Amino acid sequence: MRTYAGRLRGADRGSFTLFAVIFTMAVLWLAVMLADLGGVMNAKERAADTAGQAARAAAETLNLQDLRDGNVVIDPAEACNAADQLVLQYKEVSHIDAVVSNCTFQGQRQATVTVTVTTTPIFSVLIGSFKETATESACAEFGITTGAAC
Questions:
Q1: Which three-class secondary structure state does DSSP give residue 137?
Q2: 3-state secondary structure of 148
Q3: Model-level pTM?
Q4: 138/54 Cα distance (integer angstroms)
């Protein structure tokens, strides 16, 4: 004859295994969601960094004839091309999906570049991809005492 304690042990079999499986799945899901959130935050930082570097590259493309005459003037055609090339190089090295979505000029000495970075989370089936956009400006300057007052 089985005792009362023996009957309780028999009914309890496997319940810890079920708890361990469910708990492990929940912890893994939280870890993946944390990684995805970190990826989104990283995309925001990469967009800002890439836009700043592209704006600097655009501001460095000066019109040489105007520079010889003592004027600092950004060459608009070359500036946007330089920004595009920098983002393409960054894309190859960093393996990120980044594009220059806008390249404009405020006056003759300031370039503004907008970069969009797309990131795909691990659970992309559930939530899709994210696009982070950043806009940065840079000023062209030359010489030791001639600063750029944008």
A1: strand
A2: coil
A3: 0.71
A4: 9
The H or E element spanning position 20 is: helix 15-59
CB-based contacts of 71, cutoff 8 Å, min separation 6:
108
**DSSP strands (E only) in the chain:** 97-106, 110-119, 130-139
Q: In degrees rounded to 5, what are phi and psi of residue 6?
A: -65, -40
At what angle are helices 76-94 and 15-59 packed, to 10 degrees? 150
Q: How confident is the model at residue 38 (pLDDT cuts 50, 70, 90)?
A: confident
DSSP 118-135: EE--TTHHHH--EEEEEE
With a CB cutoff of 8 Å and minimum separation 6, the contacts of 106 are: 112, 137, 150
Contact between 135 and 102 (Cβ < 8 Å): yes
**Mean pLDDT over residues 25-47, rounded?**
85
Longest dimension (CA), the chain: 108
